[in-house]
From TrEMBL:
Coiled coil: 112-157, 195-262
Keyword line: Coiled coil
Organism: Rotaria magnacalcarata
Source species, domain of life: Eukaryota
Name of the protein: Uncharacterized protein
């Protein structure tokens, strides 16, 4: 709107130049040039000439103001472009911050996956331990059965000996009692060692599993908290940037309106 108005003024100025010349000629023709000017005609010529000069000055002033206003408009447009560029850079920086958040979240997820794999490995080890325990238990039971058979055979031999000799020797009773005691002690020791080893492994597995599950849970909570914090900060930055941009746009519009008014 402003540029079109000053363009019209320039056109008026260009059109006025030949009209000014024609008016001046007409005024001169209407006035006597025989060195006997009347006061009325001279006053009319002087008034018209002064108005013409004043009009030219006003037009020149309008043209000067137009150039100044165009320069201000160019400056304002340049400021707007710079602001848009700054906004894009800020948005790009915010996008980079968001990418860092995504990278941090990815690292957390990799840690969670690693802990999950460790838990699966421990479960496999636990299954292998149970299988080993069952195998050793079976071997121990087999050994016990063999020892029982040996005891039975020993009893049979003793009975056969008693039948032959018709009486039992005190020495044989003592040997038999000693053998049974040693056998029972060995079986109890083997059973105790096996159970302690099994219980220790089970306890260690449970503690390790609970620790890994707790670390996994803590990592998930921290990852969610970090993601929420980054998202909240990014949203606040975007809101602040939007408010700042809107204020600058309002200021620019007010400046343009003020210039239009002037």
């Amino acid at each position: 709107m402003v540029v079109r108005t000053w363009s019209e003024i320039r056109t008026l100025r260009e059109r006025l130049d030949p009209k000014e010349y024609a008016i001046n000629n007409k005024l001169i023709k209407n006035s006597p040039i025989d060195n006997h000017y009347s006061n009325q005609n001279f006053t009319l010529v002087e008034s018209a000439t002064d108005q013409n000069i004043h009009l030219k000055q006003r037009i020149d002033e309008f043209i000067s103001n137009e150039k100044h206003l165009l320069a201000l408009i160019d400056e304002l447009q340049s400021n707007v472009r710079n602001q848009e560029y700054s906004s894009k850079r800020t948005y790009s920086s915010s996008s980079s911050s968001s990418n860092e958040t995504v990278i941090t979240t990815s690292i957390h997820m990799e840690k969670i996956q690693d802990l999950t794999q460790q838990i699966e490995t421990l479960k496999t080890s636990y299954a292998d331990l149970e299988e080993k325990y069952e195998y050793e238990k079976h071997e121990l039971q087999t050994m016990i059965e063999q020892l029982r058979e040996e005891v039975i055979e020993t009893d049979k031999m003793k009975q056969f000996y008693n039948d032959v000799n018709h009486e039992a020797s005190p020495t044989e009773d003592m040997l038999r009692t000693k053998f049974e005691f040693e056998l029972k002690s060995k079986l109890d020791t083997m059973r105790r060692i096996l159970e302690e080893d099994y219980n220790e492994n089970i306890s260690s597995y449970k503690k390790t599993q609970e620790k890994l599950e707790q670390e996994n849970q803590d990592l998930k909570i921290k990852s969610n908290q970090d993601l929420e914090q980054k998202t909240r900060e990014l949203r606040q930055e975007m809101d602040a940037m939007k408010v700042k941009h809107e204020k600058q746009i309002i200021q620019l519009n007010n400046e343009i309106d003020r210039l239009k008014t002037n």
